[in-house]
Amino acid sequence: MGLAERLNSVSPPSARNIPTPSGKRSSIARDEYAMLKHDVHEQLLQALGQQAYAGQMEQRVLEENVFNAIQSVLAKSKKPLSTVDRARISQEIIDDILGNGPLEPLLRDPEITEIMVNRADSIFIERGGKLHATDLRFSDEDHLRRTIDRIVSRVGRRVDEASTMVDARLPDGSRVNAVLPPIALDGCSLTIRKFSKDPFTAKDLVTMGTLSRAATDVIDAFVRGRLNILISGGTGSGKTTTLNVMSGFIPDDERIVTVEDAAELQLSQPHVLRMESRPANVEGHGQVTIRDLVRNSLRMRPDRIIVGEVRDAAALDMLQAMHTGHDGSLSTVHANTPRDALSRIETMVLMAGMDLPVRVIREQIASAINVVVQQARMRDGSRHVTQISEITGLEGDTILMQDLFVFDYNAEDRGQTMGKLVPTGITPSCLDALADNGVILSTDHFRSPWSR
Hints:
Layout: H1 3-9, H2 30-48, H3 59-76, H4 83-98, H5 104-108, E1 112-119, E2 122-127, E3 130-133, H6 141-153, E4 165-169, E5 175-179, E6 189-193, H7 202-208, H8 213-224, E7 229-233, H9 239-247, E8 256-260, E9 272-276, H10 290-297, E10 304-307, H11 314-323, E11 330-334, H12 338-350, H13 358-368, E12 371-377, E13 383-395, E14 398-408, E15 420-423, H14 431-436
Parallel strand pairs: 7-11, 7-12, 8-9, 8-10, 10-11
Antiparallel strand pairs: 1-2, 1-6, 2-3, 4-5, 5-6, 12-13, 13-14, 14-15
């Protein structure tokens, strides 16, 4: 029997598994509650030492000691506690010792998409694209720091005074960023971007209005037809979700190599190799960058290379991969428009330190990248693909692009969104290339609604 089940078994049915989605306290005062939690922590420290919090103890042994400490402290409490308070305190102490403290009810809530801890006593969430304050809080700065240490240690990362910023992930793949003082002036900060336990599908994106049915069919054909696609957008616009959905269009008989800073992609194909970058150790050695991984992926006989995000000189290696037979590669980049995305790629190639003429770089970009998918988060919190643009070549020093789909802000789509993605009426020049790869795409997908 697990720890939670054992604690439930000693409480009346009415007090079992009490949810705390809003983070509100029950009738017990905050100070008295904090004192009870402190007593449990002290008893555990006396019995087990710091190994109780460092992840160095077998889970079964730790659960046994936590159970005994909770029952002992609650039995000695002079404060008469209701069964609801006992169950709630027990659950929150379990979360503190074995989980992520006050963040656990937020992590369990499927409607919450982002958790933002500004400091120990300030926690915000994003729900439905909107920010909301909670009344949850950590006991103190040390409590928040222990939680951060527990999260990053699970994936072999570290955060301390010498390395004050870290990217990590939770076991379910949720993305974690932590910043410590003195960089964070008001105390430790923690940001968690949650991912659905069940990855979104193309049908989900259509239902949510992120993509139209016609655009989904076109992107499906582009991926199966081995076009190189770049997904562009701002922070929180849904680039990774769209990348994950697009990767699902890759046939099952292809070998896929993924390269990420923190592993987030959830691919369902049977032949996937995942690689994750690594920061330097305490001595300053052992760093493995995205660029190192992209170069190494070329030696792994990939059919497709998926780079979670291009943000530095790895852009040069990605372009080289696209030029050397690895068609159908996918990646994301931070940019506000498709044109800005290409400018950012150009700038990042220059970061590689090679003295290349700008025209040569643009020639590489124009011949390597076939399609740019632009995504944005609207003011109402919804996320939409706002442009699908095809790169058609180079004229002089200018990369030529044409928009295949654009977001019409004046259109109404079932009255649920601010507009919808519509075709422009331009037929892409890549239809022959798709046909060469066995993918036939009807021109009806690109017929403009204004010409009908």
